[in-house]
Amino acid sequence: MKKNKFESKLSSNGPSYQPLYKQVEEYVTQLIVEQRWKPGEMLPNEFQLADEFNVSQGTVRKALNTLTVNNILERKQGVGTFVSERTSQNALYKFFPIVADGGKPELPMSETLSRKIEFATGEIAKSLDLENNEEVIVLSRKRKIDNKLCILEDIYLPKKYFDGLMEETSIPHTLYHFYQTNYHHTVQNISDSIKAILANEEDAKQLNISVNEPLLSFTRLAHSLEGKIIEYRITRCKSDNYHYLVDLM
Questions:
Q1: How many domains does the structure of the chain reveal?
Q2: What is the pLDDT confidence band of residue 49, given thresholds at 50, 70 and 90?
Q3: Which pLDDT does position 211 carry in this prediction?
Q4: Phi and psi (nearest 5°) for 122?
Q5: Where residue 132 falls among pLDDT bands split at 50, 70, 90?
Q6: SS3 content of the chain, % helix, strand, coil (to 5)
Q7: Which of 42, 58, 83 is the last residue of a domain?
Q8: Percentage of the chain lying above the pLDDT 70 cut
Q9: Rounded Cα distance, 239 and 235, in Å
Q10: 60 or 17: whose pLDDT is higher?
Q11: Which residues form the domain of 47?
């Protein structure tokens, strides 16, 4: 019998037994995390993967279907299976939910106001699952929709996951593709918490509105494929002509 190099990963022995398709699913995810297959790269076909993992083609197909539903992979009819890329279009429809009233979703343009390193404490440390006083990179940005300034955001990133970001010459409008291509962190899921707040003096000045005008505020946690929390984001948006869109599909 052939000795398979992944045999120790895919085994039905022992108390931690999982169905083989689940083991394949988790191992393919791990190989993507380790950059064996990079964003946009095509995987071997189902027969090749079945042979490599020493499982049936049906087991591989079940695992790949789940990874496709979870947007880790993308299947192109008649072509093959590819590692998903966080393109601008992905970010627009999945990761950026603020829309102008009566308008269609569009990617906001951004301007970085500041980029600095701080020590995480309190809510920031807790949200990012960091020890107090671990270093975080803080990006403060303002954003426009249809060339109208309407959004402010502060983004907190664990420095240990983004070493080198302070030396980047520029920060793009869409960060999740940037995280993936430059730092090998693929955002797998996000959670948003939304509430109404009143504009403080600094936000009112930046947005050119009056103090205590209502704003739409949401905090976001972004998790990577490995389950690490890689981003904590606080966004404030004018509420007069904008809304938060959720597409439940």
A1: 2
A2: very high
A3: 97
A4: 50, -130
A5: very high
A6: 30, 35, 40
A7: 83
A8: 89
A9: 12
A10: 60
A11: 20-83
| Closest listed residue to residue 221, CA positions, set 95, 61, 137 | 95
Helix axes 20-33, 46-53, angle to 10 degrees: 100
Q: CA angle, 2 as apex, 41 and 32 as ends, to 5°? A: 20
CA distances from residue 163 to 30, 117, 135, 194, 246 in whole angstroms, order as listed: 21, 11, 11, 30, 33
Partners of 75 in the beta sheet?
81
pLDDT in tens, 83-122: 988 766 666 666 788 889 988 878 889 999 999 999 999 9
Rounded CA-CA distance 24/178 in Å is: 28
21: number of Cβ within 10 Å: 19
Give the DSSP H or E segment for 206. helix 201-207
On the 0-12 / 13-18 / 19+ scale of CB atoms within 10 A, 101 is exposed
- 113, 195: one domain: yes
> CA 208, CA 210: separation in Å to the nearest integer?
7
CB 60 within 8 Å of CB 49: yes
pLDDT for residue 68 is more than 70: yes
Which residue(s) pair with 119 in the sheet? 135
